[in-house]
Amino acid sequence: MVAANGQLRLPDPAAVESTCFPLLAGTVISAIGSAPINQWPPAQPCWQRGLMPPNYFDERVAQSYETRWPELFEPAAIDPVVNFLAELAGPGPALELGIGTGRIALPLSRRGIRVHGIELSPAMVAQLRTQPGGDDIDVTIGDFATTRATGTFQLAYLLRNTIMNLTSQDTQVDCFRTVAAQLEPGGLFVIEVMVPELRRLPPGDTVRAFTVTSGHLGFDEYDVATQGLISHHYWFDAGQADVMSVPFRYVWPAELDLMARLAGLTLRARWSDWQREPFTSDSTAHVSVWAKPGAACLTGQSG
User: Fold this and answer.
1) N or C terminus of the chain with fewer C-beta within 10 Å?
2) Is residue 17 part of a domain?
3) pLDDT band for position 46 (cuts 50, 70, 90)
């Protein structure tokens, strides 16, 4: 709500977390009130094979990316990922799909591994270039479902639910096939992605909160008929509200395994996290590794 002095006053996070989405939507609208609103482009319907997907990561998102998600840039969030990938990459080279601002690619390249990136957003790449070592990483601008880099790679990886940015099953399958074509014999493909949280939704509900803080409200809205998901974000700072909604297609572990098989890849390992904790029925995410024929068997396979 807006206080008498015109400043934005947020609802209590604990109260918001317990509301259903219709009430929540009204709460957020009331909270925004007459405060200035920065609105990103609205989420669009699922795009079709052969069409360039919308770019939701424009200059404003790129410039505020680390500010919006500071926890992703903490050593505790970066080091386990880099350690895991460096072990699999060996001497490299490695390919990151959706390289973004280089959160992982930069520290991985500092391990002596040559990293190439594919990225849809020129604005995100521009932020990468401003960082030490950013000019040493080659980036191809394009849709990673179909765009190919030059050469072949020992390792390709796709982090933080980015496979879900491809909002149709066809394009997710295309991604696996494109990666497989770029892997060296014995090369590995790693994906980090959430396990869809449908069983945690109360009967009849379609929305689940994933972030509820005084400065950021985040809600996933599910469409089970299409495996669609729209992530709604509301940021509040200094009396101003930023609103962003981005579409995804959620995907199940077994479905990813079938996509990999269609591309000629085989599941070699699946863990709950980068520390190689076992993947179980209670896992909320997974890190999965598929191999092109010729790869040595990995230890610690689960799932």
Assistant:
1) N
2) yes
3) very low
